[in-house]
Amino acid sequence: MTVAASRCPCHSGDTFDACCAPLIAGAPAPTAERLMRSRYTAFVLQDAEHLLRTWHPSTRPRTLELEPDLEWRRLVIVDKAAGGPFDRDGIVEFEAFWRQRGERGSLRERSRFVREDRTWFYVDGEVR
User: Fold this and answer.
1) Closest Cα partner for 96 from 110, 78, 112, 108?
2) What is the mean pLDDT of the chain?
3) What percent of the chain has pLDDT over 90?
4) pLDDT tens profile 42-55
5) What is the pLDDT of residues 62-99, one digit of tens each?
6) Which residues, in sequence order, are CB contacts of 48 under 8 Å at separation 6+?
7) What's the pLDDT score for residue 3?
8) Which residues contact 14 (CB under 8 A, 6 or more apart)?
């Protein structure tokens, strides 16, 4: 089975090809949640280019070092506020589960997003 035909790493229930693949290829996300899901998938795939491209210029780091041995296992959307196709900003709170060198854990973050010129960007997040 190819990656395109397999379930999307973001756990939306859809296939990768129908879910995060178009966004990672450069298509704009229709909502803040969809952008957040594509960013999680980019972490799974070690795609720093997508992460940097979708990070708002006001908070974007110059470079991004990803940990090659950090395995992202599951994503759960905990809460969201606004972030729809006609909103200017949005919040998505998530918990992402990981495994690294025999240890397991999770990261819970309340992320802020902003939409400019019909394009959603990740601004920053508060780790909880």
Assistant:
1) 108
2) 96
3) 96
4) 999 999 999 999 99
5) 999 999 999 999 999 999 999 999 999 999 999 999 99
6) 42, 63, 64, 65, 66
7) 64
8) 7, 8
Instruction: Please check whether residue 90 is in contact with residue 74, taking contact to mean a CB–CB distance below 8 angstroms.
Output: no
Tokens in use for 62? 């110059």
Can you read off the two tokens belonging to residue 111?
A: 């992320």
pLDDT band for position 2 (cuts 50, 70, 90): low
3-state SS string for the chain: CCCCCCECCCCCCCECCCCCHHHHCCCCCCCHHHHHHHHHHHHHHCCHHHHHHCECCCCCCCCCCCCCCCEEEEEEEEEEEECCCCCCEEEEEEEEEEEECCEEEEEEEEEEEEEECCEEEEEEEEEC
Torsion of CA 89, 120, 49, 51, to 10 degrees: 30
CA 17 to chain centre: 16
